Amino acid sequence: MNLRGRAFKFGDDISTDHIIPGRWFHLRSNLPELAKHVLEDVSPDFVARVKPGDFVVAGRNFGLGSSREHAPLVIKMAGARAILAQSVARIFFRNAINLGLPVLICNTKQIDEGDELEIDLVSSTVRDLTNGNQCTFGRIPEVMLHILDEGGLVPYIRKHGDFKL
Amino acid sequence: MGKTLAEKILSEKSGTEARAGDIVVAQVDLVFVQDGTGPLAVRQFEASGFENLAKPTRTAIFLDHAAPSPARELSNDHTMLRSFAKKTGVRLFEVGEGVCHQLVAESLANPGEVILGADSHTTTAGALGAFATGMGSTDTAMAMALGKTWLRVPESFRVVVEGHFGKGVYAKDLVLHLIGLIGADGATYKALEFGGETVSLMSISERLTIANMAVEAGGKAGLFPSDNITKEYLVAQGRGDKYRRLEADADAAYERTIKINAAALEPTVSKPHTVDNTALARELRGTKIQQVFIGTCTNGRFEDLAIAASLLKGRKRHPDTRLIIAPASRKVLLDAIEAGYIQTLLEAGAVIDPAGCAACVGIHQGVLGDGENCLSTANRNFHGRMGNPNSFVYLASPATAAASAITGEITDPREYL
């Protein structure tokens, strides 16, 4: 399956406090309101410009910090179809997959803000249609692929009732 | 080939010969959420169709992040968590009882256990020889229901510490130095396993400080051996029967070994906005501080308040510097009252916050103003962390924090010792 959308580019060390800071803690049970603040301290107009199917593209250690699953959740709610990063923090990675949001580890240096990207999940390839560059992303562990296939951990457990390795 | 601590614990809990890189399903001995991650965990638990917990007495909810609640939305989240606890038999720790990680150490964690918490600093319980790691709401909700989780067995870094800390240098300085050395993603996915002569003499309080911050280098766990010091701590907490000796095999395989000479360390500070942005406290003299915050799961224990009180006894905070103290638990607060530390700190001009996360997460009890600098004993100084993206957070030991409260600027505590 191919995914196509625009790149929204972010730098290194984008923390969970950047993605959804503690000052919005009181909105965690009001997700539509919470989602209005996604990444606002780094890119105030991100939420207004992002469209369903676009991609968040980042540098090193994306999502470091807190275990708050609200971080990938609000990125997904904003419409992002996947996150591409050079590397990603451990808890954020698991949380995103558990919500059915793919996180692809690849060399994002050549991708610029606004580039049109096409992602081929079968051949693990990202094509930058704007500048013609291409890169491959690393393999996701099989158990995570199965969770992604089901659309997240809740539907996975509803179907299997347990972890199937 | 021998096993690391992580491989030993995960072998036992998965019933396999678990080696770094393997993916296993492990029994979970203790699972917990807090008031920021708990409501989503409860919703995911219910969405999965579960009604019962696998181990109600080994499942806990902590009301610590927004405690007492500063907003009605959060009060409603607390109500929802209390009602879930009543319905399922989960152990609920009320507002004012303390920070989850401190309470886990005081009353729940045991050597050799697998502990999952919906809070990144769950690594703290590694100080007691448990494999303790943070996950999100959905993972912990499924562990609450199933009593197990899937895990990739991490590769381990061995951190060997030798030599004695000099005057004014503490476990916090060691762990800040380590993170500065390897970077905020230097140990991503890895277990950090601590050893060496200095570690074998460290108190549980010091081990908790270090294990707490393993995640600030990206670590999945921060593990200490379970030894006689662990035994004494467990006996003092009334669960000496849970003690078991646990250490890595001598021929275990480590991806990397990092040697640190404790005697060469100096009081260390992490500058805004990443934990690995370290400098020496003496190099930052002249940096004005409007708020000093001493507390949290990193450095809000009795031993930390003792250090702060010893520096502040008979002295006053600088008139331009607020001093906020948050004990990590009610027990810490009671012990500090009995020892006279709270009186000393109040006389020095401190505000005492309730036992809990307090100002650490930017929700309440010490939100910073525009352009303000805070010197905090917490574990994280990210942009916007303390409630305001136009403020700056520095991290240091309780001694450096107390010395800086006196002078109003970042100060090497050795000037006051």
% residues in beta strands of chain B: 15-25%
CATH top level label of the largest domain in chain B: Alpha Beta
Stated plainly, the CATH topology of the largest domain in chain B is called: Aconitase, domain 3
Q: What about the largest sheet of chain A?
A: 7 strands, mixed
Overview features:
heterodimer, A: 165 residues, Aconitase, domain 4, 7 helices, 7 strands, 28% helix, B: 417 residues, alpha/beta, Aconitase, domain 3, five-stranded parallel sheet, 14 helices, globular
In short:
The complex is a heterodimer of chains A (165) and B (417). Chain A is built from seven helices and seven strands.
Summarize the SSE layout with pairings:
The complex is a heterodimer of chains A (about 160) and B (about 425).
Chain A: E1 2-9, H1 16-19, H2 31-35, H3 46-49, E2 55-58, H4 70-78, E3 82-85, H5 90-98, E4 103-105, E5 116-120, E6 125-128, E7 134-136, H6 142-149, H7 153-160
Parallel strand pairs in A: 1-2, 2-3, 3-4
Antiparallel strand pairs in A: 1-5, 5-6, 6-7
Chain B: H1 5-14, E1 23-27, E2 30-34, H2 38-47, E3 59-62, H3 72-88, E4 91-93, H4 100-107, E5 114-118, E6 131-134, H5 137-146, E7 148-152, E8 156-162, H6 171-182, E9 191-195, H7 197-201, H8 204-212, E10 221-223, H9 228-236, E11 256-261, E12 268-270, E13 278-280, E14 291-295, H10 296-299, H11 302-312, E15 322-326, H12 330-338, H13 341-347, E16 350-352, E17 373-376, E18 392-395, H14 398-407
Parallel strand pairs in B: 2-3, 2-5, 3-4, 5-6, 8-9, 8-11, 9-10, 14-15, 14-17, 15-16, 17-18
Antiparallel strand pairs in B: 1-7, 12-13
Commentary on this structure:
The complex is a heterodimer of chains A (165) and B (417). Chain A has 165 residues and is of the alpha/beta class. Chain A has one domain: Aconitase, domain 4. Chain A is built from 7 helices and 7 strands. Chain A has helices at residues 16-19, 31-35, 46-49, 70-78, 90-98, 142-149, 153-160, and strands spanning 2-9, 55-58, 82-85, 103-105, 116-120, 125-128, 134-136. A 7-stranded mixed beta sheet of chain A has the order 4-3-2-1-5-6-7. The model of chain A has no long low-confidence stretch (mean pLDDT 96). Chain B folds into 2 domains: 8-261, Aconitase, domain 3 (2-Layer Sandwich), CATH 3.30.499; 268-416, Aconitase, domain 3. In chain B, strand 12 and strand 13 (278-280) form a beta hairpin. Chains A and B meet through helix 1, helix 5 and helix 7 of A and strand 1, helix 2, helix 3, helix 5 and strand 7 of B.
